[in-house]
UniProtKB/TrEMBL annotation:
Listed EC numbers: 3.2.1.-
Pfam families in UniProt: Glyco_hydro_1
Record keywords: Glycosidase, Hydrolase
Lineage: Bacteria, Bacillati, Bacillota, Bacilli, Lactobacillales
UniProt name for this protein: Glycoside hydrolase family 1 protein
Length: 458
C-alpha cells in the first residue's frame, strides 16, 4: 500500500458556471457565456448552453449527500460573480442565501468547501466596458473578492482567486474558444496582466480584512518538453514555458516576473501597460498555497520560419507530435502521468516547496454511455487506471518531500464544459441531462471511495 500523508485532501472540483444552471433566475445577471449562447447557440456542442448545466442550484443537497457517501473530505467550486453582485455593486441576498446553505451543507457532511472566485465567467456588465482589457476590472474584482470574503469568510478557509487564468487569456484573445474571440497577442498579454493585478488586489483585500484561512490561485501547470536537446528546440521550450507556466507561477509564488518573459515580450513589442506601484504590490501579495490543474503536457520544437515580431505564440514555438505518446482515445489528449511527478519536484525545488494540491486531474470521455452495463453503471476502468497511475507518480513525489496536501478529480458529477457542452464526461457520477439530471454512480466512484478510506493506493 502507498500511503498518503494524514489529513490529505481527497475530493473533486467543479465551477459555478459549469454546474449551477439557474443562469438567469433569482437575480443572477448574465455572463459572457449566457450572452454568447444567446448570440450563437450553434457554436455550442449539440446546442446545449449554460442555462441548465448540472442543475446544482436546485440539486446541491443531493450531491452533497453523494459526496458523503463517497467519503470525500473536500470539494472545490466557485462563486458566480454575476449572481453575487449582479451589477457589480449591489449584493444579491438570494445568492448569499444559496451559497451559505450550500457551504453549510458541505461542512455538515465533513466536506471542506474550497472556494474559487473566477472560473472564466466574466459578468456581462464588465465585458461591456472591456472586461480584463480595462484596468477598471482590477478594482471591480477586488470589490467582488472583498464582498465574498465578508459574506462567506466564516465558512470558507481556503480561497482561490482564479482558475487557470492563462486559459481565458488564450481562449478569449488568441484561439477564439471564449468570448470575445479576438486574435491579438498584444491584447492577450494585457488581459493576462490585468488578471494578475486583479489577483493581487484580491489577496490584498483578504489580508487587509484579516480573514482566517489561506488564499491561493489555481494554475494549469502544463509541463513543457522539447523535441530534442538541440539548442533551438530548448529555446522553443523555454519560450513556451515562460509564456504558459512562469508567466503566472513566478509572480504569484516568487513575487516578480521572470526576466526571460519580460525580455521575450519586449523583443516582440508585447509589453503591457502598467501602473506605478504594481511591482511592489506583486512582491507583497505572494500566495499561501497553490492549486495545480494537470491534464496533459505540452511538447514543442523550434519553428521553421520565425516571424519577428511574433504575431502568435506559434511564431515562437511549434507543437511537436511525440511518436511515443499514449493517447486517451475518447478525448484525444495525451496521457502522461510522469509529468505530475515533474511538476511536484519543480514546485519543491524552484518554488519554495510551497504547499500545493492537485486541484484538477481527470479523464474526459466522449459518448460515455457506450460503457454502461446492464445495471446502468458506467464501467470506467480506463478512468480508474488513469487515476491510479497519476496517484502513483504523485505519491513518489510526496515521498521525496514535495509538499502536496491533496488530490481533486475533475469532476464530481458530469458537467457542462464551455463550447464542448456535455461532449466530454469526467464525473464520478453520470448525469442524465434528458432525465431530470439524474445522477448514477460510475464504477470509479466505488474504487475511489476505497482509496479515500484507506488514504492509500495499492
Ligand atoms: C479545465 C477547466 C475545466 C474543464 C476541464 C475539462 O481546463 O478548468 O473548466 O472544462 O478543463 O475540459 P473539457 O471539458 O474541454 O475536456
Amino acid at each position: 500500500m502507498k500511503k498518503f500523508p494524514d489529513g490529505f485532501l481527497w475530493g473533486a472540483a467543479a465551477s459555478a458556471p459549469q454546474t449551477e444552471g439557474a443562469a438567469l433566475i433569482d437575480g443572477k445577471a448574465p455572463t459572457t457565456w449566457d450572452k454568447w449562447f444567446e448570440m450563437n447557440p450553434e457554436k455550442f456542442y449539440k446546442g446545449v448552453g449554460p442555462k441548465d448545466t448540472s442543475n446544482v442550484y436546485q440539486q446541491y443537497a443531493e450531491d452533497v449527500q453523494l459526496m458523503e457517501d463517497m467519503s470525500l473530505n473536500s470539494y472545490r467550486t466557485s462563486i458566480s460573480w454575476a449572481r453575487l453582485l449582479p451589477d457589480g455593486k449591489t449584493l444579491n441576498q438570494q445568492a448569499v442565501d444559496f451559497y451559505r446553505n450550500y457551504f453549510v451543507s458541505l461542512i455538515e457532511k465533513g466536506v471542506e468547501p474550497i472556494i474559487n472566485l473566477f472560473h472564466f465567467d466574466m459578468p456581462w456588465w464588465l465585458m461591456e466596458k472591456g472586461g480584463w482589457e480595462s484596468r477598471e476590472s482590477v478594482e471591480d474584482f477586488g470589490y467582488y473578492a472583498k464582498v465574498a470574503f465578508e459574506q462567506f469568510g466564516d465558512l470558507v478557509h481556503r480561497w482561490t482567486t482564479f482558475n487557470e487564468p492563462i486559459v481565458h487569456v488564450e481562449c478569449g484573445y488568441l484561439f477564439e474558444f471564449h468570448y470575445p474571440a479576438v486574435v491579438d497577442f498584444k491584447r492577450a498579454v494585457q488581459v493576462g496582466y490585468h488578471t494578475l493585478m486583479a489577483h493581487t488586489q484580491a489577496v490584498e483585500e483578504f489580508r487587509r480584512g484579516k480573514h482566517t484561512g489561506e488564499i491561493g490561485i489555481i494554475l494549469n501547470l502544463t509541463p513543457v518538453y522539447s523535441k530534442s536537446d538541440a539548442p533551438e528546440d530548448i529555446k522553443a521550450k523555454d519560450m513556451a514555458d515562460a509564456l504558459n507556466v512562469k508567466s503566472f507561477l513566478d509572480p504569484v509564488v516568487l513575487g516578480h516576473f521572470p526576466t526571460e518573459l519580460v525580455q521575450l515580450l519586449k523583443e516582440n513589442n508585447l509589453l503591457p501597460a502598467t501602473e506605478t506601484g504594481d511591482k511592489e504590490k506583486l512582491a507583497q501579495t505572494t500566495i499561501d498555497f497553490l492549486g495545480v490543474n494537470y491534464y496533459q503536457p505540452k511538447r514543442v520544437q523550434a519553428v521553421n520560419q520565425p516571424a519577428v515580431p511574433a504575431k502568435m505564440p506559434s511564431d515562437l514555438y511549434a507543437e511537436y507530435d511525440w511518436p511515443e505518446k499514449k493517447i486517451n482515445p475518447y478525448r484525444g489528449w495525451e496521457i502522461y502521468p510522469e509529468a505530475l511527478y515533474d511538476i511536484a519536484m519543480r514546485i519543491k525545488n524552484d518554488y519554495k516547496n510551497i504547499p500545493w494540491y492537485v486541484s484538477e486531474n481527470g479523464m474526459g470521455v466522449a459518448e460515455e454511455e457506450r460503457f454502461v452495463d446492464e445495471d446502468g453503471v458506467i464501467q470506467d476502468d480506463y478512468r480508474i487506471e488513469f487515476v491510479q497511475d497519476h496517484l502513483a507518480e504523485l505519491h513518489k513525489a510526496v515521498e521525496q518531500g514535495s509538499h502536496c496536501f491533496g488530490y481533486h478529480m475533475w469532476t464530481f458529477v458530469d458537467c457542462w464544459s464551455w463550447l464542448n457542452g456535455y461532449r466530454n464526461r469526467y464525473g464520478f457520477y453520470r448525469v442524465d441531462i434528458e432525465n431530470d439530471f439524474k445522477r448514477t454512480p460510475k464504477k470509479s466512484s466505488f474504487w475511489m471511495k476505497t482509496v479515500i478510506e484507506n488514504n492509500a493506493i495499492d
